[in-house]
Amino acid sequence: MPGSIQSIERAAAILRLLAAAPGPLRLTEISSSVQLSRGTAHGILRTLNDVGFVDQDRVTGKYLLGAGLAALGGGLVDPNELRARSMNWADPLAARTGEAVRVVVPEGGDARVVHYVFRPDHSAQKADVGAVLPGHATALGKVLLAFHPVAVQDVLTFYTARTLITRSALTAELTRIRRQGWAVERGEHQMDMAGIAAPLTGLGGLVVGAIGIHGAVDRLLDPAGVPRPRLLALVQECARAVGRELTTLRTQV
Amino acid sequence: MKPRFVMAIDQGTTSTRSILFDHGGQLVAVAQLEHHQYFPKPGWLEHDAEEIWRNVDKVVNRVLGDVGATATDIAAVGIANQRETIVIWERKTGKPVRRAIVWQDTRTDAMVEEMLRAPGAEQIPQLSGLPLSSYFSAPKLRWMLDETPGLRERAQRGEVLFGTMESWLIWNLTGGPDGGAHVTDVTNASRTMLMNIRTLEWDSHLLDFFGIPEAILPEIRGSLETYGTGRGPLQGVPIAAALGDQQAALFGQTCFSAGEAKCTYGTGSFLLLNTGTELVASTHGLLTTVAYQIAGEPAHYALEGSIAITGSLVQWFRDGLGLIGSAAEIETLARTVDDNGGCYIVPAFYGLFAPHWRPEARGVIAGLTSYITKGHLARAVLESTGWQTREVLDAMNADSSLRLKALKVDGGMTSDNLLMQFVADVLDVPVVRPMVAETVSLGAGYAAGLAVGYWSDLEGLRRNWHLAAEWLPEMDEERRESEFRNWTYAVQLTLDWTSKVGNATTRVKSR
Ligand SMILES: Nc1ncnc2c1ncn2[C@@H]1O[C@H](COP(=O)(O)OP(=O)(O)OP(=O)(O)O)[C@@H](O)[C@H]1O
To answer: In this structure, are A14 and A134 located in the same domain?
Structure first.
């Protein structure tokens, strides 16, 4: 039996404190209440903020319980529900981009495929619904990593010469993805394949999955490795449409 | 300037939509409005035909506005509509004489029961291709003529006009009282029970049997044919096609040739098999219906099997039992177990329909043991849709020598991968889903576009059909057949239930 993990105990104490408080609390109120140094309390609060359990008021800087906590009971999203909600948008994305479409949900630090639409070119293809795509080496996986602060594997598996295998390179990439709101894959999983992906955002701003296209590098990217603007716009537009679908009431399905 | 789009008007049971498609068959814009459902008495369902026409006008304007298009951008308009629903309106004013009676309405059940015993009733299936049932238009029309004071006389004098939804819309679109065309397309006419399924003309025996004056009926025309041109926002645009909604879906799925079939999986499900220009009279409980007719060419026929309870069983599982929060969660629950645990659910909520036609049957959950969990029940719910499809397909195979190479599917339930795999497994044919989910509207658009030459031929349209997903059969033969035997035993258990326990029918109906 492993011993109890101190930082989880502390995080739980902070959550209980916030839940019992009459309103948002300042960092000093929190650190003194749970008898931690300001630095330690701040670190825990930041992590809790990353995973959505704690929100920070942008004006006052005070902390309160996050929207992610409320959604906890239901898990992130039912994968079959996500497929049903995205199907009517994923089809036109494939039709307009001419590329195959995948929808994924997070699984650990990786991405599990829950929906697949064939590339519309009459060629024989195989859907990989149920497959797990490596988080650090695919556009879809990187979107999930960027918006889900989960622990990344210690060893980043090498797939091609382009795979990001150092933690610093991946961290920089995830920061960029968070800032721009989309991810691109440039032969990092398979040498000749590229991908463009965007997050699917559910209630409370929680990213519950990702949607993206994948296909030959020269079709998706320009020679400099930049996604073709039309394709990127279509992916983003589709992700927003699914997001709107996700934030309408469940019972309306 | 060449027209950029074709327009489909999809007049459905709950809403009316107008959709623009481009030359690649891609959906460009859509506008939709719901209309009121009137339930004046238990079992009755009516629509306000004027409201529906106003909605058509609004969605047409809206969809044109959305893309900044005018009449000159539209090559043609095609209509797909809820089938069997009837309207009677005044020729002079265009006012409906009363609300439309909707296909689901059961007010004529008792009347039809009596008609079944009347002389000549036995000829009806052979003449019309349909079993005598309150589902089709003729009994509803008879009821309206009988129950609306003075209407029969006005009908005989030619003051009022009868139509199914597409007739009503075409008449209004082409000018209404000011020269509107009073026509029906042959696929819709084939659902009235008044048309001879062979000659494709109104049948005097059927008109006599139901007591319908011929003066009230529209002229039967092809499904792909210019009936007239539009007014107002559609000034001069050919109104060039009409199809019943399920026939439109068959067309939209590009099932143009004999042996091609589609199944639409929604609240209920509709499997249609194109039998080509050959009419196949079913001896196994299916309907014979017209698939489409290009003006001046022979009609293409279809065998149709309708399954009453498929998606609605999932709804019952959600709302009646409360075991899931949304329809899609049934797949998650079903995947918590590996098989049905020996449990089968036969959803004969209102009797068994095609191919059994046993109204006195009631549903069963068979094979219950303490081992069964809600996961097994979820599987049994999904599997019942697969087995019901299998029964209909077996009936088609018995009636016709055409063998299916693949089943094209559409509708809300196709988002369920477990179900679609199961359908492929039990039918032992590949199940394929096209990229454009809106097959009903697409069918109407295709038909209209073909009629005016916006598309040149059927083969060109086939190239627009793109595979979005595919499920290949995986189940081994032995397992498939032993499971099917078990299902068949379960079906046996449902038969005669109400004749044994009495008034359960009224209990169900009064809900
Ligand atoms: N993932 C799923 N698994 C099983 N059943 C589903 C799933 N998603 C939806 N359904 C069922 O499918 C039906 C909805 O399908 P659809 O939207 O095609 O309905 P419809 O009312 O028949 O069609 P329309 O409103 O277009 O005329 C519902 O009965 C619902 O229970």
So the answer is: no
